[in-house]
Amino acid sequence: MPDKPLKIAYEAKRITHNATGLGNYGRTIVEMLARSAPQNRYLLYTPDLGREALRKRLPECEQIEFRLPRTPKHGLAKAWWRSAGVCRELPDDVSLFHGLGAELPWGLRKRGIPSVVTIHDLIFLRFPAYYKWFDRRIYTWKYRAACRQADRIIAISEATKRDIVDFFGIAPEKIDVVYQGCDESFKREVTDETKRAVRAQYGLPERYVLSVGSIEERKNLLLLVQAAARMTEPIHIVAVGKRTPYTTEVEKFAAENGLAERLHIYHDVKFADLPAFYRMAEVFVYPSRFEGFGIPMIEAACCGVPTVGATGSCLEEAGGPDAAYVDPDDPQELADKLTEILADEELRRRMTERGRAYVARFEPEKLVADLLAVYEKTVDSKKGL
Known about the structure:
Blueprint: E1 7-11, H1 13-17, H2 22-36, E2 41-45, H3 52-55, E3 64-67, H4 76-88, E4 96-99, H5 108-111, E5 115-119, H6 123-126, H7 133-149, E6 152-155, H8 158-168, E7 175-177, H9 192-202, E8 209-212, H10 221-230, E9 237-240, H11 246-256, E10 263-266, H12 274-279, E11 283-286, H13 295-302, E12 307-310, H14 315-319, E13 324-326, H15 331-343, H16 345-358, H17 364-383
Helix pairs in contact: 2-17, 10-11, 10-15
């Protein structure tokens, strides 16, 4: 542990603006640190207050402080402030700056402020077809610059660490793997009354297989629908996630194969209701072709649901050896695996118990210790220790 309390600054736009993904990552990190390391101060720099509901997901405590621009910013000035202006507004006694979403502001080295950046994935380089040419160029420039500028890099999985080394030529010794956890709400029991209320509110079927994640091509929901079309036992599919044009392709296949009434897509589920969605599911399926980590696998395991992931990225790191894994291009393999799991109560029990035991490694105490070790290493290296 550091000899004295740290004052850590964060680029926090996504904490106040993004309800999923990088927003959840930032909020989880800050909440865990505030609860487990209250001796420190956590300064969240955001260009505006964003959404009140997202800010309220963080505990109200003296350790956490939102900081806005000294003068209000509008339009492109907000982006400029995040890239350059924020550095001039950091206090002289700040211990380090942590870029939570693959970005660092310019000028940190000039001010002598140690820096850490988190890289979640390099999917835009692994699967360029999913991204526009201009977006790929911007992401590549920003991510590479952040990796070179940072004193330490946090990769959220071993798979992401390998990609940083391979694509950007960064020395592996500069990179620490610190896994992600999930919100504590997924670890708490959900009452039968709450389950009944959630089922009624959303019109959920009695039995269903669940998938959670943006409904985009990379997430590969179509594989699950194709698998359902091959199964003898009819199953309902509940998909929770942001709709994209790919959603139409999934719905079209379902309609053409007699599955329209068994495909239920929700894009407006309240975060507080999500644990009930998990806990009422028979099986959780995450058929994504590539992820930086795969938090929904952890959420499902914490909720006591057997999980099935796709091979090819890092989902084995998130789900552990007792989850099931299938080829993301083989609907028959997924159909067979679901049939096996749904028919075998003992298998479901074993997957559930071992899954919960595996995700214990993502408990806040372990993650906070790993994160603080990176911070200490970063601060000490800047001191020349």
